[in-house]
Write a structure and sequence with these properties.
By secondary structure, this protein is an alpha+beta fold. Helix content is 19%, strand content 42%. It contains one helix and six strands. The strands form two sheets. Strands 1-3-6-2 form a four-stranded mixed β-sheet, with helices on one face. The two termini are 17 Å apart.
Amino acid sequence: EEVKIYTNSPGDYTVKGNITATTKANMTVQEGQDYLILQAKRQAANLGANAVLVLNYTGKGPSETVDVYRNGRYIPVPAHPKTVHAQAIYVPRKN
């Protein structure tokens, strides 16, 4: 079943548990975002939830980057990890 991501309350839902995910070193901004979403969805599914309600997203400013050599070139990556705090929730299906 697909796990949905919400940044605002979807209305009626039941909290299944709390979720925390943190990016790994040397991830680009896009890789970090994709990783956080994937980890949050996996954790929610493991708790029997069908959705994730994002509570907050923390980390130092996006303008703080370092250059990392990858695939023959230097690319900027965030200097500090980002963390998402969320709730695994179950949203009833509407008929």
